Amino acid sequence: MARxxxxxxxxxxxxxxxxxxxVERYEIVGKGVVPTTHHxxxxxxxxxxxxxxxxxxxxxxxxxxxxxxxxxxxxxxxxLLEGDVAPVGIIGMGKGLEGxxxxxxxxxxxxxxxPGKFARTFxxxxxxxxxxSDAVISRTVKELVNEGAHVIVxxxxxxxxxxxxxxxxxxxxxxMGILATAASDISQLYGLRIRxxxxxxxxxxxxxxxxxxxxxxxxxxNSGINAPLMVMRSxxxxxxxxxxxxxxxxxxxxxxxxxxxxxxxxxxxSDGIFLEVGGTSTDISVIKNGKPVIRTAxxxxxxxxxxxxxxxxxxxxxxxxxxxxxxxxxxxxxxSAHIAGLxxxxxxxxxxxxxxxxxxxxxxxPREGDPADYVGVALDGDTPTVAxxxxxxxxxxxxxTGYSKxxxxxxxxxxxxxAKEIGTTAEGLASExxxxxxxxxxxxxxxxxxxxxxxxxxxxxxxxxxGAEAIVPSTAKAMGMRYTIAENAEVISAIGIALGIIRDTIxxxxxxxTDQDLLLLRKEAMERVQRMGAIPETxxxxxxxxxxxxxxxxxxxxxSELRTxxxxxxxxxxxxxxxxxxxxxxxxxxxxxxxxxxxxxxxGERHVSRFFGLSRRTLHPLRVIDEExxxxxxxxxxxxxxxxxxxxxxxxxxxxxxxxxxGDAGGLLPDIFLIASGRVIDLTxxxxxxxxxxxxxxxxxxxxxxxxxxxxxxxxx
Length: 717
Fold this sequence. Notes:
By secondary structure, the protein is an alpha+beta fold. Helix content is about 30%, strand content about 30%. The strands form 12 sheets. It has a 6-stranded mixed sheet. Strands 13, 14, 15, 18, 25 and 26 form a 6-stranded mixed sheet that branches. A 4-stranded parallel sheet has the order 8-5-9-10, with helices on both faces. A hairpin with a 2-residue loop joins strand 30 (about 590-595) and strand 31. Helix 2 packs across helix 7 and helix 13 packs across helix 14 (about 470-480).
């Protein structure tokens, strides 16, 4: 019987990892790794192809077994950082008074991408108070090309509402053999200056990204695989290769997105802070209510109409180098063993270690301009070849059990020797290094918790990446928090890509959105992911309405196949589920208060003292858990109502009326979740009762009316 395999390929700073996942068993059936091809003519795409071929050969995967191939890419990010982008010609348009403003706002001049790196632009303006002629458009395109433009962007005042002129200009340029795009096809938000800037950066990437896409797709097809080819997006989803050709900007800053996708789909974390730890840096991001936290992207200090994960990067990781001054530890990092061209003592093979007879302390500058206090260790000579790193420290402390575990005793010998050199013990040196690493990570994690007002009682620190054990346990200990290290942490990003969910986002400016506006937006979002291969039965749409910015966002997610995993052996009994819930809530008992298909809702009780013990408040933590023991939703304090799908509207209405909080700014609705047909439907982004009821009905319209439904509500904090 043929396996059902998804392949994920992650482009890292040093290596490109490929994994094959059997989606019926959620088992890894093969791994492949090659050095990342940063300096190849084909760019990192060459490493993607090489790792795929290595994986197919080593795991004996037949082309017909592959359901999907997805990969991340640093091509767009690298192009921006290096300024390796195409010059763009902008054709601004408008009429009347708005036209005068549009002439200025569509002329972006050069756009800073990174310090000292710019995207070059050339500008023309067309008055659209009368009909545009093909001759005028063609002449304008030729003028811009003659100046040096390789790609054309058409951007008109209110082009979001009336895109015909933008699309006509883009179409004319394409017929002339010039790459072109309409600004309204990249973003449908008001804000001509930002929309034009976003379209320009997207256009500047197109030539290189089209070349990358063509090369990758050709290699995949030549291997005999006809499965869909997907690319990782910066918001944690995947999109098909054709969408990447049209909107390459969506891959920008997508590096950490793959790890977060794995945290959601493989580790199945509903609320947590994900730390992906490499050799040089650690990326820290947030998962809340089963979704990654998203922000608006910026490039060179310029805000764009692009959504990306909110990722904070710190310069400490598994390979960060120890720094000494006057025999005392002063820091760990930010330079790493990789940057300095040194090896990890941790990974010396058992047969290599005994041959080392002596160690010599060397102070080095990993890069020109760095302080000369980084520690290198010379083995049997004068040339430094080994770094002292947090990965070594956790071996000395006995924390490393997985990928970071030492292959020999060499790392222990080095720590023993160096500790004597500076007047301490090996354990003392390792602990001091771990304390410095934990302090750096803790500072960022604390800032994230405060910024998003996260409930610590719900959070788990989740470690991924090959260096996870070097940073996450010590950070969790310093913060008094739970943590988990992902299985197969060293290839967690590739797993996340393989299991990635097809995703697209539509953002519109709607002053007072009606229920019909939201339903139409939902329909459009569903159709987009369906066109990319998502099966209709798997599609979920979340709507968020921002009253302040008048922005409405629809996020659609779906899978290219129905879930076929055989979970019968993984189904847990009620006692096991209750034990998982109690541990999650940290309470002595929890009551099963409702069920909806495979989803169980448990309710606990916790008493919290306030005002120095003068008053007590009773909270009712809630957990929604599936039959496999995966917590799908957790709330610190909530209420539950049972119903059927057909009667859910009345139950939702009653819960809203009961728990709406009133103040000077009016009514503050509770957060509402509808649980039905194996799904947790998130209605928290909607701002009034009618919107919530309309969306709940739309999300359950194909579910039999007599099926059980559970409504969960929580007062907003």
